[in-house]
Amino acid sequence: MITRRTGTTIAPDDTAAPFDPTYGHTVADLLGYGPPDNEPDDFEQQWLAVRAEADAVDPDPAIGPWEALGDQGHQVATISVTGLDAVRSNGWLVRSPGELRRALVIGHGYGGRTEPTTVIPDGCLSIQMVSRGQASSAWPGVPSDSHQHVLHGIESFRSYVHVGAVADVWAATTVVTDLAPGVPVGYEGGSFGGGIGAMAAAWEPRFDAVQLTVPSFGNHPVRLTLECTATGEAVRRYHAEHPEVVEVLRYVDAATAATRITVPTLCIVAAADPGVPPPGQFAVANAIAGPTWLHVAQAGHTSWPDQPADAERSARCRAEFWLDPAAAVC
User: Fold this and answer.
1) Where are the beta strands (DSSP E) in 162-307?
2) From the DSSP assignment, how many helices (H) and strands (E) are in the chain?
3) Distance CA 280, CA 212 (A)
4) What is the CATH number of domain 4-328?
5) pLDDT computed for residue 330 by the predictor
6) Are 90 and 138 in contact (CB under 8 A)?
7) How distant, in Å, are the alpha carbons of 256, 262, 266, 290 from that of 3?
8) Among 17, 44, 89, 154, fewest CB within 10 Å belongs to which?
9) By the 8 A CB rule, do 160 and 252 touch?
10) Is 103 strand, coil or helix?
C-alpha cells in the first residue's frame, strides 16, 4: 500500500505572472493528473541501455582543495566529472559540519548554478554539478541559452540533451558514492532538476530517498497544450512545426519515469506557476510509485505576496524530510 502525506493550500490571488498561473485549476483538480497513457513499449529497454552505456564511462573526477565556505563550518571543493559521450561537467562538493551520515546529489533549475549552496543537512556530503551545456559546464555545440538548450538533440531519444543530463546525475552519484561509502545517498532538485531528477531516479537504485520541487517535463501531452513563460514554451512552439517530436517526448517524460520511483519521496508542487504549469508538476507527483509526501506550495516561478512565508514552509518540509525520509512521508 502506498502512503501519501498530502498538504493543502490555496493559490495566491495576486502574482506577477502575465496570465492566470493556475490555468483555471484548483488543487483538487490537479490531484487528478497523472502520467500520460502513451508510454512506449520499449521505454525501459531504451533507458536501461543508456544506463548501461553511462555505467561504462569512467567519471574520472578531478577535485580541487577543500576551503571554508560561509561562517557555519561548511567546506567546499571544486570538481569536474566526465559523463556520457565524454562530456565534462563542473561543479562543487560541499560538506556540512557533523559526523557524516548522508550524501546528496543536488540538481538545479534551468540555466545552471553559479555558486554552491550550503542548505544541506548536518553531516552531509553533497555533490552539486552543473548540468551539461549550462553555466560553468558549457560544452562545444550545446547552446547555453535555456530556450535553445531544451531543444538540443531533440530529434531522437539518444541525442536529446536531457538524456545526457540524466546520465550526468548518475555520474555524480557514482562519484559521491565512492567518496562517502556506506552512507545513504539521496537526490534533491527543482524545476529542471526536478524533472531530470525524476528521470534519473527511475533507474538509480542507489538513491534511498528523493526530493523534487516544482518538477518540470511531466505529462508532455498536457504540457504541449499550455502556454508558459519558461522552456516548455520553446518545446510547445517547436511541436507546432514538428509534431513528430511527440515520439521522442514519450521517452523523456518525468511523469512516466516517476512510476518507477519507489523510495520515499517529498514532492513540492505549486498550485500556481506560469513557468512550469501545475498540471505537469502534479502529474509527476501523483505518478510516484513509492511513499510520498506531497507538499503544495502556493506558487512557483513568479512572485506573490506571501512568497517568503510560503518558501519558509517548503524549506521546513525539506529539512524534516532529510532528517528521516521514511518517517517524514508517513
Assistant:
1) 185-190, 207-213, 265-270, 292-297
2) 12, 11
3) 13
4) 3.40.50.1820
5) 81
6) no
7) 19, 11, 12, 7
8) 44
9) yes
10) strand
Query: 230-251 in b/e burial notation, b at 16+ Cβ within 10 A?
Result: bbbbbbbebbeeeeebeebbbb
b/e sequence 280-301, b meaning 16+ C-beta within 10 Å: bbbbbbbbbebbbbbbbbbbbb
Quick one: which of 157, 137, 188, 122 has its CA closest to 253? Answer: 157
Which residue ranges of the chain lie beneath pLDDT 50?
1
Question: The whole model's pTM is what?
Answer: 0.97
**pLDDT 10s digits, 211-261:** 999 999 999 999 999 999 999 999 999 999 999 999 999 999 999 999 999
Q: Is 160 helix (H, G, I), strand (E, B) or coil?
A: coil
Q: Which residue has the cell 498536457?
A: 222
Characterize the bridge pairing of strands 62-63 and 74-82.
Answer: antiparallel
Grid cell, residue 219, equals 505529462
Residue 176 is predicted with a pLDDT of 98
C-alpha cell at 31: 490531484
State the amino acid at position 35 in one-letter form.
Answer: P
Q: Provide the residue ranges of all domains of the chain, joining segments of one domain with +.
A: 4-328
Strand spans (E) along the chain: 4-6, 62-63, 67-69, 74-82, 88-95, 102-106, 124-129, 185-190, 207-213, 265-270, 292-297
C-alpha cell at 19: 496570465
Q: What is the model's pLDDT at position 1?
A: 35
